[in-house]
């Protein structure tokens, strides 16, 4: 299964909508950057460094089992983010098949047709297009979206 991309603007809108509604439907963000995590991140992102990802993916599948949407990214979302998303989809699919996790109830599932088309057991899994590099630059001044942004750190990347 090809893992779809989500634009930074679409992710920002979803994060803000979830914060405004208090619905708990906030996408789970999995940031697989390694040392480059320093210098800023999306508010609430879970850092699972790519060098540890494969040994932690099973635990991630369990802890995110009831999240309607899970978004993966790295700095540019060209290598580490997409590889992690594919590994997560494979691990979630296996866990569903072996009945180690349950499908999301219909009431928790995402509403968009495209999202439902790419859902894994009712869970939308996607990759942040252009990664944190672009998202951070666009939203660095919005405390609802980005925290600990270090302009100097990003001037070298």
From TrEMBL:
Highest taxon above the source species: Eukaryota
Record SUPFAM superfamilies: Rhodanese/Cell cycle control phosphatase
GO molecular function: protein tyrosine phosphatase activity
Leader sequence segment: none
Transmembrane segments: none
UniProt GO cellular component terms: cytoplasm; nucleus
InterPro entries with a match to the protein in the record: Rhodanese-like_dom, Rhodanese-like_dom_sf
Domain Rhodanese: 23-144
PANTHER family assigned: ARSENICAL-RESISTANCE PROTEIN 2-RELATED, M-PHASE INDUCER PHOSPHATASE DUAL SPECIFICITY PHOSPHATASE CDC25
Protein name according to UniProt: Rhodanese-like protein
Species of the source: Tilletiopsis washingtonensis
């Amino acid at each position: 299964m090809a893992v779809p991309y989500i634009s930074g603007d679409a992710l920002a809108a979803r994060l803000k909508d979830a914060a405004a509604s208090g619905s708990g439907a906030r996408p789970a963000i999995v940031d697989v950057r390694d040392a480059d995590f320093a210098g800023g991140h999306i508010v609430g992102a879970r850092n699972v460094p790519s060098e540890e990802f494969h040994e932690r993916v099973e635990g991630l599948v369990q802890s995110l089992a009831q999240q309607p949407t899970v978004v993966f990214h790295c700095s540019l979302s060209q290598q580490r983010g997409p590889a992690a998303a594919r590994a997560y989809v494979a691990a979630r699919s296996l866990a569903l098949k072996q009945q180690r996790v349950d499908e999301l109830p219909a009431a928790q599932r995402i509403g968009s047709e495209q999202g439902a088309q790419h859902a894994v057991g009712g869970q939308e899994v996607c990759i942040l297009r252009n990664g944190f590099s672009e998202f951070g630059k666009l939203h660095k001044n919005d405390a609802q979206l980005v925290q600990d942004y270090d302009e100097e750190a990003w001037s070298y990347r």
